[in-house]
User: Which sequence fits this backbone?
């Protein structure tokens, strides 16, 4: 089901909507938010200089640091009294990023998340269980409002207490699961331990995954667990840009459709800031067209992707973004080789004997970067033969070396040994960073 007519309009129609909204939004930010005004004045720009969409590239970027510098409300365009919701993203260092929504913002956010739910195959007949942590994280309440708006019955079970979650899932006849991909896998494992067969004893047929990436091999793991007819899509967003709702995969699974009447995407070279042509990989920059409480102009997401403008087989004409390669902050440089954890995951999960749980540890020993990876086996009995284990470790190491050019020490561990996550998974420990080393 296609939720909104804007998802199928022609490029010319979309650009007309975008230009009108962009002009309005830039004027709004200039007039109401002092830090936007001063950045534009520094660049000798005024709102009336925006005459076409091509002028967008002249506007200054907004970055995470702007939030920190103007904590908590300095980027708000309205008094906090006019906000109806406040969220914050935790952030590992310093103060959190605080975001606010007016009533109008809530309506737009809900609309875009409803589209995401429809993209992933949800309908008003679904019983949806939201297993994201409710709280300051935008994921849970974002999907909650969108799914309710679609007409689904929403159970806000939140994350944690997995056995109870599964009891609800079984007793309520849940048909749709909202979770991080890692938590969805964990739920499946716990279900089996409880003697439930997710494909026979549960009715879950749709998974709306987000908050972290899902590589293709990870999607295959979802099918193994939840069944071949399971609809596993992922959707993307970030707190600074409302939360979920920016984009989502349709059932063709060929990139995430961006709701372009609310967000203009650009991809830039992260080093130079130069805008790259469609199809080239770089950092995603987003301009929000309808956010009133907290306007966001040219926000640098740090997420790496590319854009495609060809209409999709699903009938939508909106621009699609490729599933993320990762965040530029997550890129590891190991002995000069640049690698994203998602690339390592792709290699690992293509080996059938290996399960979807792994842990990457990077450190510097005697001035040399070294990487070790703990990987869980699918089957405990593999631990019985030293020879077989050794061969498998060699195979994993060889595949990493030939695909990514990286050497790693491989430790194969028993199923169920590594830490499981209820929210976003943390799979990389870079001890070099923790020790303040340059890397
Ligand atoms: O994770 C918003 C969200 C919640 C989106 C639930 C979709 C579903 P933050 O906590 O601010 O917001 O984290 C944003 O998470 O910049 C990405 O690096 C990462 N991320 C979110 N969705 C995906 C995805 C929410 N589908 C940061 N694939 C973003 C890969 C994702 N990474």
Assistant:
């Amino acid at each position: 089901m296609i939720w909104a007519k804007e998802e199928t309009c022609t490029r010319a129609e979309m650009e007309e909507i975008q230009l009108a909204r962009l002009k309005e939004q830039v004027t709004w930010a200039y007039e109401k938010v002092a830090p936007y005004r001063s950045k534009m004045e520094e660049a000798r720009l005024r709102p009336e200089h925006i005459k076409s969409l091509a002028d967008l590239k002249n506007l200054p970027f907004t970055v995470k640091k702007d939030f920190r510098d103007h904590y908590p409300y300095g980027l708000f365009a309205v008094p906090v009294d006019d906000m109806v919701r406040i969220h914050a993203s935790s952030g590992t260092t310093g103060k959190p990023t605080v975001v606010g929504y007016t009533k109008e913002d809530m309506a737009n956010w809900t609309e875009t998340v409803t589209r995401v739910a429809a993209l992933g195959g949800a309908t008003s007949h679904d019983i949806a269980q939201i297993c994201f942590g409710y709280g300051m994280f935008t994921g849970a309440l974002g999907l909650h409002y969108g799914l309710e708006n679609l007409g689904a019955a929403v159970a806000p079970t939140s994350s944690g207490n997995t056995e109870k979650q599964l009891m609800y899932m079984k007793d309520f006849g849940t048909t749709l699961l909202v979770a991080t991909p890692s938590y969805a896998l964990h739920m499946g494992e716990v279900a089996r331990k409880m003697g439930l067969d997710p494909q026979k004893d549960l009715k879950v047929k749709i998974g709306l995954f987000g908050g972290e990436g899902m590589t293709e091999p990870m999607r295959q793991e979802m099918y193994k667990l939840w069944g071949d007819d399971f609809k596993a899509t992922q959707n993307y967003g970030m707190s600074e840009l409302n939360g979920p709702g920016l984009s989502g995969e349709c059932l063709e699974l060929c990139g995430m459709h961006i709701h372009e009447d609310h967000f203009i995407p650009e991809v830039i070279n992260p080093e130079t800031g130069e805008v790259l042509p469609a199809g080239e990989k770089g950092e995603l920059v987003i301009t929000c067209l309808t956010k009133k409480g907290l306007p966001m102009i040219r926000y640098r997401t740090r997420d790496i992707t590319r854009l495609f403008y060809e209409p999709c087989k699903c009938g939508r004409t909106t621009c699609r973004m490729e599933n993320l390669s990762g965040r530029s902050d997550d890129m590891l440089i190991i002995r000069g080789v640049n690698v994203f954890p998602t690339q390592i995951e792709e290699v690992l999960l293509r080996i059938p004997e290996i399960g979807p749980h792994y842990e990457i540890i990077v450190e510097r020993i005697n001035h040399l970067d070294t990487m070790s990876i703990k990987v869980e086996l699918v089957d405990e009995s593999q631990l019985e033969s030293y020879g077989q284990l050794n061969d498998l470790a060699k195979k994993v190491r060889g595949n990493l070396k030939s695909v990514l050019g990286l050497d790693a020490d491989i430790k194969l561990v028993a199923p169920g040994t590594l830490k499981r996550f209820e929210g976003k998974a943390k799979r990389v420990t870079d001890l070099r960073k923790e020790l303040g080393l340059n890397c």
